[in-house]
Design brief:
Layout (H helix, E strand, L loop, with lengths): L5 H9 L3 E3 L34 E4 L2 E6 L2 E12 L3 E13 L5 E15 L2 E11 L5 E10 L3 E12 L2 E10 L8 E11 L3 E11 L2 E12 L8 E2 L3 E5 L3 E13 L2 E10 L3 E11 L5 E11 L6 E12 L3 E10 L2 H7 L3 H4 L3 E12 L2 E14 L2 E21 L2 E16 L3 E14 L2 E2 L4 E13 L2 E4 L8 E5 L2 E13 L3 E5 L8 E14 L20 E17 L5 E16 L30 E10 L2 E10 L4 E13 L2 E11 L10 E15 L2 E10 L4 E12 L3 E12 L2 E12 L13 H6 L6
Parallel strand pairs: 1-13
Antiparallel strand pairs: 2-4, 3-4, 4-5, 5-6, 6-7, 7-8, 8-9, 9-10, 10-11, 11-12, 12-13, 14-16, 15-16, 15-44, 16-17, 17-18, 18-19, 19-20, 20-21, 21-22, 22-23, 23-24, 24-25, 25-26, 26-28, 27-28, 28-31, 29-30, 31-33, 32-33, 33-34, 34-35, 35-36, 36-37, 37-38, 38-39, 39-40, 40-41, 41-42, 42-43, ...
């Protein structure tokens, strides 16, 4: 570890700084600190329970040398109401004050040990005022709450909560030979709060790593102290050398803020901020912001990720969701989380919700921008109001539910957005009928939708671009479905007395759907799935197989477990003249056949899942186009977990549809995987990879090792990208000390996010 601190040591020796380090941030908490369980008290010791001002002295020999001067020799044991002092020799001086009270001063020498609560200080000599508790230790070392070891040429006890150390050392590492420590010319220790030291040198073992003129080291038991976090260092072939640090502000038990700074030698400077709060459940929020100034530019880039949920008076609940960034290029270049770096959309949403029994009232305003190259498709609810009743039984076995909405909608691009209103009412009623081997559920739905504007051509010929400027129109439609499940057939394999026996269940699922025709379907603005409904007559049929067994549950009791399931499904479209089958969201393939003529049959969809136990599962899905007679998509995912960690892996592949077999090229072919290992308590290993089989290139590679012991730890991370405009390899390193957190990557994924929840990247 020593070589890791050579560069910081050289830098710090040239540039003096003032540094306060913060306790590793934990999640905000609600209300007062939890009450500690009262420990069982040992049998009373002599002197316990003494009233203030009184003491009890034991020694091999005791004598009064002169008036007010008492000597004790041998094994000296002095007890007061809250402290204990032991030494080889002790002189006690008693002085009578003008008001009739007495003052006592003790001078102890030889193997001096002072004890108070959990505090222990030993030294060669101690001189102490027994009334105020103020004293001076010489050549002393010891332990003060909560978990700080201190050593000094002189240690001054100013009061019960404060110590001052001259030419001292301190550490929170409890190893016999501490792995790290600070040495300082002077330090002030505020018990269960902080240490303020001047002329401090951070040492790894005995090797000096770096110098700080002033340092504030937190020692609070709740580990929520205001101050600077430990920095991280790194190098990137795309961004250059990087150093980053942060400041943590513990505003209270239920709120905090973090400020961060990053400097990249060939990329620019970044500033981050995060505000977190936690109130009575479910109210909580995390507002994460990052601003970046590219090198040689005056234009700031930004990335905002805000999420909050707040209970309001009257049982209303407000939620805020904001994920926006300045440009697609900045998102790809700044994010070290692969899912965020490959995102193509921004989102803003604000909702207000109130439940009235089984009815949900919701007011929402949101906008989503999806980027396609240099343009963006814009979808907006400004605003939307809805009433929704979840389906519930109303008597006679009938189930009733409804949804009523009124939305102000906006649809367009980053240049022009057309605005219009949509009013929608959709009640439904169903009546399930169940037998032992068969279940039939008929459902009737009526939907009435009014559009304040429709699609119209922008020129008189009717061939120009369309805009939502046409006349208002209504779209009434009726939908009826009959869902049939069964008859099912089953067989049990294994002896009745065998708790691990299997049960195989097989049966069909058939759903018939009829929807009345929708006239002038192409004039309806397409905003979401509700606008893609058109007349249809279709039957979806599937063969479903399941294998059931019993496995131990969380309590150890055997519970039912679906070991294996396989659903093979297809849809037959009776009506195809208007391309009804092309708007079915259940299939990724178009239902058009060779020559792109409408076909009656959808692709064949297979979904298979195996789950031997809660920690092991696998999914295998594929879609076969029966019209083109070719495999369209295939996907395989699996996960396994346990006390040692977890592993996830997946493969997905899609092939272009074509009449000509030579043109059926692979459109996408990806391998993805991730692993988190904790082979022993002190070590954590994380890795993830994304490989593009079409381009034969590793798009993303991540490797991270975390090592931590009782008093310190470090995180080393390697990340490689080859995605769009970013070709990058980077290495990052950060350390952690007992009671002190570190500032990790403010714009990426971190093992700390998995370990500490809201305290993610620190």
């Amino acid at each position: 570890m020593r070589s890791l601190f050579i560069i910081p040591a050289l830098v710090a020796s040239l540039v003096p700084v003032v540094c306060a380090v913060a306790a590793e941030p934990t999640d905000p908490q609600i209300g007062p600190a939890p009450k500690k369980a009262k420990p069982k008290r040992p049998p009373p010791e002599p002197g316990e329970g003494l009233p203030p001002g009184e003491f009890r002295l034991r020694a091999d020999t005791q004598e009064e040398v002169s008036k007010g001067h008492y000597q004790a020799r041998g094994f000296v044991d002095l007890r007061t109401s809250d402290a204990r002092l032991q030494a080889d020799r002790l002189d006690l001086y008693e002085t009578e004050n003008a008001d009739g009270t007495k003052s006592r001063r003790a001078v102890a020498e030889g193997n001096v040990v002072f004890m108070r609560g959990e505090e222990r200080i030993a030294g060669d000599r101690l001189e102490m005022d027994m009334d105020s508790g103020e004293g001076t230790f010489e050549n002393a070392l010891g332990f003060v709450e909560p978990g700080v070891f201190v050593e000094g040429r002189k240690i001054f006890r100013l009061d019960a909560k404060t110590y001052r150390v001259e030419d001292g050392k301190f550490t929170s590492c409890a190893q016999p030979n501490p792995r790290w420590m600070f040495s300082a010319s002077s330090a002030r220790i505020e018990v269960n709060d902080k240490i303020v030291a001047t002329n401090a040198i951070f040492r790894v073992k005995s090797f000096p790593a770096f110098y700080l003129p002033v340092i504030v080291y937190p020692i609070r038991q709740d580990q929520r102290s205001t101050g600077f976090l430990l920095p991280h260092f790194g190098y990137s072939t795309f961004r250059g050398f990087n150093v980053g640090d942060g400041f943590f502000w513990a505003m209270g038990r239920s709120a905090d803020q973090t400020f961060s700074f990053d400097n990249y030698s060939s990329y620019g400077k970044g500033f981050g901020h995060e505000f977190r709060y936690l109130e009575d459940a479910p109210s909580r929020g995390t507002l994460h912001s990052y601003f970046f100034l590219p090198q040689g530019s005056t234009q700031w880039d930004y990335n905002l990720d805000w999420n909050a949920l707040q209970m309001l008076p009257g049982k209303f609940q407000a939620t805020l969701s904001l994920q926006v960034y300045s440009s697609q290029a900045f998102q790809e270049q700044s994010q070290d989380n692969f899912n965020l770096a490959t995102s193509r959309s921004t989102h803003r949403a604000l909702t207000l919700q109130r439940n009235f029994g089984s009815t949900v009232f919701l007011v929402s305003a949101d906008t989503t921008d999806t980027f396609f190259g240099d343009t963006a498709v814009v979808n907006r609810h400004l605003p939307g109001i809805s009433l929704r009743r979840l389906p519930q039984q109303i008597g006679g076995g009938f189930i009733f539910g409804y949804e009523a909405r009124a939305d102000g909608l906006g649809y367009g691009n980053d240049q022009t957005v057309d605005s219009y209103f949509r009013f929608d009412l959709a009640p439904e009623v169903s009546r399930p009928l169940s037998l032992s081997f068969l279940q039939v559920t008929p459902t009737a739905r009526f939907r009435f939708t009014r559009y304040s504007a429709t699609l119209a051509s922008s020129d008189s010929t009717g061939t120009g671009p369309t805009a939502i400027t046409g006349p208002a129109r209504d779209r009434p439609l009726f939908e009826g479905t009959v869902d049939l499940r069964g008859p099912t057939f089953s067989r049990v394999f294994g002896d009745v007395s065998d708790p691990g026996r299997f049960k195989h269940v097989i049966g069909p699922e058939i759903t018939w759907t009829y929807r009345t025709p929708v006239t002038d379907f192409n004039s309806i603005p397409k905003f979401d799935g509700a606008d893609y409904l058109l007349g249809t007559d279709q039957i979806t049929y599937a063969l479903v197989q399941r294998i059931l067994t019993k496995r131990p549950g969380p309590t150890g009791k055997l519970v039912s477990n679906e070991f294996f399931s396989w659903r093979l499904a297809q849809t037959y479209y009776v009506q195809i003249a208007e391309g009804q089958n092309n708007f079915d969201p259940n299939y990724s393939s178009s239902a058009f056949g060779p020559g792109f003529q409408p076909e009656h049959l959808s692709p064949l969809l297979s979904r298979m899942r195996i789950r031997p136990n809660p920690n092991l599962s696998g999914d295998f899905n594929l879609e076969y186009d029966v019209n083109f007679k070719q495999l369209r998509t295939i996907g395989l995912t699996s996960s396994v977990g346990g006390a040692w960690g977890n592993l996830q892996a997946g493969w997905s592949r899609s092939v272009r549809l074509s009449d000509n077999p030579a043109d059926r090229v692979v459109a996408a072919d990806w391998l993805r995987g991730g692993i988190h290992l904790e082979p022993v308590a002190r070590i954590g290993v994380d890795a993830s990879a994304n490989y593009d089989l079409v381009q034969n290139v590793w798009v993303q590679l991540l490797g991270r090792v975390r090592y931590e012991v009782q008093c310190c730890g470090f995180v080393a991370e390697y990340l490689k990208y080859n995605y769009n405009s970013r070709v990058d390899s980077q290495f990052r390193f950060q350390i952690e000390l007992a009671n002190v957190g570190s500032i990790g990557n403010f714009n990426g994924d971190d093992v700390a996010a998995r370990r500490a929840g809201l305290a993610g990247y620190r």
